[in-house]
Amino acid sequence: MKRRHLLHLLAGVPAMALLPACGKRKPSANALGPEARVLALGDSLTFGYGAPPEASWPVKLAGLTGWQVENAGVNGDTSEGALQRLPGLLAASSYDAILIGIGGNDMLRGVPASATRANLAALIEQARAHTTHVAVLATPAPDAMRAAVGSLSDAPFYEEVAKAGQALLVADVYSSVLSDASLRSDRIHANARGYEKVAQLLADRFESAGWR
């Protein structure tokens, strides 16, 4: 009896109202607006070394998302250098999201991992005081052998600091691109196609995280 009553009620409901939301996904409350201001803080991988300026991943990401992405990548920069630069950047402008991709040069120069972790933690803390949308882009640990066979992997401390600082971890983006020799300009930098791939992977990850 109850089942017949339910079917009777459903019969009066428009068919479209019964369809699952399989079309366009409802925007997340966490989503950034189409013209959000985004700071990309990093080193040569953010700068786009090895490709023309217009081929850097911040430029490509802006094209994919509509966001206004400021490229604050500096060739050769370290986590300590980024930590010194960030206060001035935040004082000069307001950002809806901050993407932190730094630490590769620390590893190349033999900076203790503990120092890099501490600097990353401080960067995340400052960024989160500015906006809740903070992402950490993991950089692969330098390993010529693993690069040669196409199996680079992220340095483990990125996951640790991102989790502790409540930041979004973006893993396996740089490592997957730099593992592919056809996407590199040299052994540690991407080429134009590589940076385009980075941007696409980032756009996909941010969509999965509800940022888009």
Structure overview:
The structure is a single chain. 47% of the residues lie in helices and 11% in strands. The protein is an alpha/beta fold and 212 residues long. The protein has a 5-stranded parallel sheet with strand order 2-1-3-4-5, sandwiched between helices.
Secondary-structure blueprint:
Blueprint: H1 2-11, H2 15-18, E1 37-42, H3 44-47, H4 57-65, E2 68-73, H5 79-92, E3 97-101, H6 104-108, H7 113-130, E4 134-137, H8 144-148, H9 157-165, E5 168-170, H10 174-178, H11 192-208
Parallel strand pairs: 1-2, 1-3, 3-4, 4-5
Helix pairs in contact: 4-11, 5-7, 7-9
Average pLDDT taken over every residue: 88
Oligomeric grouping of the chains: single chain
Distance between the termini: 46 Å
Structural class: alpha/beta
Helicity range of the residues? Answer: 40-55%
The run of helices and strands is HHEHHEHEHHEHHEHH
Shape annotation: globular
Number of DSSP helices? 11
Number of strands: 5
Low-confidence stretches: 1-24
Roughly what fraction of the amino acids lie in strands? Answer: 5-15%
Sheet with the most strands, sense and barrel status = 5 strands, parallel
Compute the CA-based radius of gyration.
21 Å
